Amino acid sequence: MRESSMTSNRKTKPPxxxxxxxxxxxxxxxxxxxxxxxxxxxxxxxxxxxxxxxFDFALFVASLAGMALLHTGANLLxxxxxxxxxxxxxxxxxxxxxxxxxxxxGQALKAAVLCLTTGSLIGLYIVSRVGLPILYIGAAGxxxxxxxxxxxxxxxxxxxGDLTVFLDFGILGALGAWTVQTGRPSWVPAVxxxxxxxxxxxxxxxxxxxxxxxxxxxxxRTVASHLGDAGSQMYYSIxxxxxxxxxxxxxxxxHTTNLSPKMPATFLITLLAVPMAVRLIRIGAQRHDPQxxxxxxxxDGATAQLNLVFGLLCVAALGLHALIQ
Length: 325
What we know:
Order of helices and strands: HHHHHHHHHHHHH
Number of helices: 13
Distance between the termini: 49 Å
Shape: globular
């Protein structure tokens, strides 16, 4: 949902940044990169602390760089096709270099191809070091990311966006990072990454929730447009509070059954992020208040901050476990 007080249309061109670097940082949506970086960091630390892998720094840096480039490429493609389809017509607080007319769709498309190509080349380097298992995981991730907004049946426009980011910037990211360090896939990173994967969906959903009217007008289907405003509020609450409940469940389930490995009780440190989640729920509840509309418009960025803090706490939980075991 967009309020006239918090956005401007294509006819109003916001001032172009004096720095080209700042311009491209906006175009790349740098604020959202932790969504793809945290699964890589988490999967890597998980592989070392729980999987018994020897830490390979070069492969870790390559994984982070490759994921960041692929994520940026997917973001740029999304901006191009949203603009061309008439979906992206208004300026939002934390993104939108194309709709701001700072760069053309053609420039964004070239940058997207460059990022996707470079990220894929880094992925091939990793494959040469690790082997075929990571090729299958990486190829699946790239394909899903490209098909998010491109192709004859773009996933985003048919209500599969939430599933896409859940897989690409959660499950596959952590599984890939684990496999890079250990050389073998495992169910552990896939399941243990579910909590932060839910928060990645929350980032996307907060954007789609805000954009229900414009997406519906452009005949774009999202989970938010299917649920409507009230349903989206409930769904967002589940996505934001669900990770804490899932962590508690995994700790309890792995310590009361024969399931191995056990999720360390140190993961309960993630509860420190609950106040951030509560604040986000309050922002969503006040979305119809004109004085709070800007906060709701920027809630995707605020949700990304929660995802970052939650991810860092998950990594810290593994570190604490390694120190005290």
